[in-house]
Amino acid sequence: MIKIDDIYPHLDFLAKRHYIFLNEKVKAGGYRAGAMISRLKQAKIDDAGNPLLVSFWEYFLRDNNKNLKKILIGRPGILQEVIADITARFPGIAFSQIVTGRLQASIEGKRVQEIFDYSGLYRSKQYCHDVYAKLEISSCPYCNEGTAKVDCYDDGDDLLNVLNHQLDHFFCQVRYPYLSLSFFNLIPACNVCNSGYKGTSDFTTTTHINPYDKSVDEHFEFYLTDKAIFKEVEVNIDYQSRIAFPNSALDDFDIKTRYNHPTVKKQIFRSYNALDTHSAKINREIRETYGIEMPLEDRLRSEERMLIFQAPSESRDILFQQYGKLKRDLFLDLELN
Fold first, then answer.
1. Band of residue 153 on the pLDDT scale cut at 50, 70, 90
2. Cα 194 to Cα 209: distance, rounded to the nearest angstrom
3. Could you read off the pLDDT of 168-186 as tens digits, one per residue?
4. Which of 65, 146, 234, 331 lies in disulfide reach of 311, CB 3.0 to 4.6 Å?
5. Residues 6+ apart with CB under 8 A from 65
6. Confidence (pTM)
C-alpha cells in the first residue's frame, strides 16, 4: 500500500540486473540459446510462414533491441505506452479470446507466452526468489492483509530464499503476454488478491495502483465512521480519497469488506481499548523497552501511543505489518480529531 521504492530505493538497478539475467552471454561474447534475444531471433526463423508474427518479433529486436529493453526494465508508465504502441501497430494480432465466458490466450497469445516464458525463464529460477528477498516486505502491497514474505530455508548445503507468495502480472499476462517477464509488471502479491480477486482483469496505471508507480497511502485513507465505539460490532471502517483516483484501486480487491471482517474489527477494538486503559505501569514499560526518554508525568506521546495501538510509526513500515496502513490511518485520525 506504499510504493515499493520507499522500501527498496534501488529498483532500477534490480531491473537492469533482470535484463542481464534474461540475456546472459556466453564466454565467446554471443548470447546463450535461452537468452531472450536468441529466442526472439529463433522465433523469426520458426515463424517465417507468418509475416505478422515475424514483424512482431522484429519489433523487439530492431534498433539494438530497444523495445525489448523497454518491456523488460521499463517502469509502469513506459509499459502502458508500449501496450498502446503494440495495439496500434499490430491490430491483426489478437493475443486473447473469450471461450465459454472466460478470457483465454489465443493461438498467437500462446505463441508469445511460449517465447516470453515466465515460468521457465524466471519464476522457477533461484534468482527470482533472491530478487524478492531483497525487498524484505512481508505483506501484500495490494491489500496489506495477505502475506508476501520470502522465507529462508537450509537445504543442508546452503541457505535458500523461497517465495511463499505469488507474483501478479499487473498488466494481465493473458491480455499482454509480451509483458510476462517485465520487471515492473511483476508485483509480489498474496494469493487472495492475485488469484481470487484480480485474475484476468484489465488493470491500467489510470484505473489501478501499481505499487512500483503509485501508493495507496498517498491516494486513500481509512477511518472509522463513528469513533464512539463500545463493542466490536460497532467498528465500521470506510475510506476516502486524499488525492483523486478511481475507487476501483480498492474496490476491485474488496478492501472495505475484508477490513470489516469480524477478526479485523476485533483487532481494532482492542487497540482502541488499549489506548483508553493504559496505565502508568504500561507507560514505564514502553519507555524502558523502546528507550523513549520523556518526562514520566506527561501523557503518553504520539510515538508511545502508536506502539500501544500497534500502528507503524513511519509510513515506509506499512508493508512490514499486516493492516499497517489501516492501523496507522485510524490512529492518526484519532489523534488529530
1. confident
2. 14
3. 999 999 999 999 999 999 9
4. 331
5. 37
6. 0.87
